[in-house]
Amino acid sequence: MNIELAHVDITTLNVDAIVNAANSSLLGGGGVDGAIHRAAGPELLAACQELRADLPDGLPVGEAVATAGFNLPARYVIHTVGPNRHAGQTDPAMLSSCFTASLALAEDLGLTTIAFPAISAGVYGWDAADVARIGLTALAAHDGNLDTATVALFSGSALDVWTEQARRLGITTN
Ligand code: AR6
């Protein structure tokens, strides 16, 4: 699987699925979650409310579920919940699981292209370089039919951090 790093708003990407850094409620929030809900339109919230019927306690950290993308260019939104460092969730395996569970779901859906944000690197308080290292390691280890995973980075400095971590890990990116 090719790994692309891009300084771009994830809501603009014409890929099979974009990953949302959601919270357990799946009912929206700030950051990339808010941007995705705004761009997708109100049908996304309705779809998330339907998913909650089977998830009365919300989506656990590290798991992933899919909805349609509605008004987004992306066909699907894969919602995952990163660990919240401010709530004491400091286990890197939880963050790695967000990437691997999203990739596994994309494979189940037969997708070819997927885009990730820097999960947990905003409101949830993880260090940008730690997120980059954990995310890149999970993406590079993936073995499946997906062709390309794009990491959509919202600032030039975030792109620099991911580029530097890829270099240190010896992971080739485009
Ligand atoms: N495209 C790409 N990246 C973005 C975009 C965008 N449009 N907007 C923000 N980012 P955050 P978290 C970056 O806080 O840390 C929400 O309220 C942002 O700069 O969105 O996992 C949820 O509902 C940062 O680098 O997600 C949860 O309650 C990265 O996306 C909570 O925040 C992740 O920042 C989740 O916190």
Q: How would you explain this protein's 3D organization?
A:
It is a single chain. The chain is α/β, with parallel strands linked by helices and 174 residues long. The protein contains 5 helices and 6 strands. Helix 3 (92-108) crosses helix 4 and helix 4 packs across helix 5. The radius of gyration is 15 Å and the shape is globular. It binds ligand AR6. Ligand AR6 binds next to strand 2 and helix 1. Ligand AR6 is lined by residues 9-11, 21-23, 29-33, 35, 82, 117-124, 152, 154, 158.
In short:
The protein is 38% helix and 19% strand.
What is the H/E string? Answer: EEHHEEHEHEH
In total, the number of strands is 6
- What small molecules accompany the polymer chains? ligand AR6
Beta-sheet strand percentage?
A: 15-25%
Mean pLDDT: 98
What's the N-to-C terminus distance? 11 Å
Q: Which regions contain 5 or more consecutive residues with pLDDT less than 50?
A: none
Rounded to an integer in angstroms, the radius of gyration calculated over CA atoms is: 15 Å
Tally of alpha and pi helices: 5
Rough outline: globular
Class of secondary structure makeup = alpha/beta
Level of helix content?
Answer: 25-40%
Q: What is the topology, as strand order, of the major beta sheet?
A: 1-6-5-2-4-3
Task: Please summarize the sheet with the most strands.
Answer: 6 strands, mixed
